[in-house]
Amino acid sequence: MYFVKRNFLLILFVILVLSPLSAQRAMTIRLASLVPENTPWGQAINRMAADWSRVTNGQVNVTVFHGGTAGDESQTMALLRSNQIQAAVFSSMGMNSITPELMAISYPFLIRNDAELDEVLRRIKPDLDARMQQNGFVTLAWARAGWIKIFSKTPVTTPDDLRRLRMGTGTDDQSMIQAFRLLNYQMVPVNITEQLFALQSGRIDALYNSPIYAAGNQLFGIASNMSSINVAPFMGGILMNEVTWRRIPDRHKPALMEICRRIEREIEQSIASLETEAINTMVRHGLRINNLSSAQMQVWYDDTARHESRLTGGASPIFNREYYTRINSILSEFRRGR
Fold first, then answer.
1. How far is residue 209's CA from residue 19's CA, in Å, rounded to a whole number?
2. pLDDT the model gives residue 303
3. How far is CA 48 from CA 52, 223, 255, 317, in A?
4. Residues whose CB falls within 8 Å of the CB of residue 24, separated by 6 or more in sequence, listed in order
5. Which of 166, 157, 311, 142 has its CA nearest to residue 235?
6. pLDDT for 19
7. What is the mean pLDDT, run by run of 10 residues, along the chain of 338 residues?
C-alpha cells in the first residue's frame, strides 16, 4: 500500500511540474502589418503563420493583425519595442529607425534595376542583419516590393521637367522629403490617403509611388504619365524583437528561418508579377509611359551625383556615407563586370 501511494504521489508530482512547463513551451506571437490581408504580402504572412505552427507542432503560433490595425509604422515600432507585439512588417522607412544605414538603399537613382539590387542585397544583407540584432531585433525576412516611379500630370523626361512640378509624398517620409528638397525639387507632404484629392485639387502635379499603389488607388487617372526610370527600390521586411526570438526553442529555429526564406521568394515573385500587371492595366486605361533613352537616364544619374556631398555629408546626413560609399563601390564593380 505504501509503495502504491508513493508512486501515485510521484506521478502526481511529475504531472504538476511538467504541465506548466509544457504550457510554457507553447507560445503565441502577435505580428502586426500595415498591409491588407488580400495582398501578396498579407497572404504570404498567413502562410508563414500556418507553417510555423505546423513545423513546431503547435508550439509556436502566430496571430496576424493585418491592415494597420496596430497603428502606423512609428506606433507599431513602439509596440514592438515594448513587447506588446512581438513581430511586425515594416517598409525600409520603418526599419530605418532601427538601422539608419538601410536608407542608403533608397538613395535616389543609385540602384537602377533588379540585377543591381540583387547584387547589393547579396553583399550587404548579412551586415544589416547583424546591425539589426545589435539593436535588439531579428530580421525574419527581407523582400523587394517593387520600384518607386514618378507619376505626373505632364510628361517628365528630365530633372528640370520635374523641378517645375509640385511633387507629393507621404507625410511620414521625412528623410526622402529632405533628400528631394536638397536636390531642388518642390516637395509637398501629403497624407498617403489624400494623394488622389491633392492631385484633383491641383495641390500637387506629380508624385513618386509604387505602380501597384498608383493602380489600386486610381492615381494614374490624373497623374497619367509615368517616367520609365526607377527612382529607388521599395523594400519591406519582417522583424521580431530579440527577447521573443530567444524564447523560441533553438531546435525550431532552422525550420522557421527556412520558411521565412521561402516566404521572401514567394513575396518577390508575387510582387514582380503584380507590378507588371498593374502597369499593363494602367496603360490599357490611358497611362502614358515616358520611355527614357540611356542618355536621358544618365542625365538623372549625373544630376543626382552632383549633390552627393549634400546628401551624405554634414553632421546629420540623410544617407549614411559609409553605406552609400559601400553600395556605390559594389555597383561600380558590378557594372564593370557586365
1. 52
2. 95
3. 6, 37, 11, 37
4. none
5. 142
6. 43
7. 44 42 70 85 91 95 89 87 92 81 91 94 92 92 89 97 94 84 94 89 94 90 96 90 94 95 88 91 96 96 93 86 94 89
- Alpha carbon 89 to its chain's center: 7
Helix (H, G, I), strand (E, B) or coil at 209: strand
Q: Quickly count: other Cβ atoms within 10 Å of residue 201's Cβ.
A: 9
Q: What is the pLDDT of residue 338?
A: 67
Centre a 10 Å sphere on the Cβ of residue 156 and count the other Cβ atoms it contains: 24
- Collapsing DSSP states into helix, strand and coil, what is residue 246? helix
Nearest Cα neighbor of 227 from 170, 300, 166 is: 300
Q: Quote the Cα angle for 291-293-294, to 5°.
A: 135
Grid coordinates standing for 130? 547583424
With a CB cutoff of 8 Å and minimum separation 6, the contacts of 127 are: none
141: number of Cβ within 10 Å: 22
CB 89 within 8 Å of CB 32: yes
> CA 221, CA 288: separation in Å to the nearest integer?
11
Give every CB contact of residue 75 below 8 A, 6+ residues apart in sequence: none
pTM of this structure: 0.83
Residue 208 and residue 187 in contact, taking contact as beta carbons nearer than 8 Å: no
- CA–CA separation, 84 and 28 (whole Å): 12
Cell of residue 143, nine digits: 523582400
Q: What is the Cα–Cα distance from 98 to 120, expressed in whole angstroms?
A: 20
The continuous run of DSSP H or E covering 88 comes out as strand 87-91
198 within 8 A of 216, measured Cβ to Cβ: no
For residues 29 and 42, give the distance between their C-alpha atoms in angstroms, rounded to a whole number: 16
Query: Helix, strand, or coil here: 52?
Result: helix
Terminal CA-to-CA distance of the chain, rounded, Å?
85
Quote the cell numbers at residue 93: 522607412
Output the pLDDT for position 115. Answer: 94
Count other Cβ atoms within 10 Å, centred on residue 155: 14
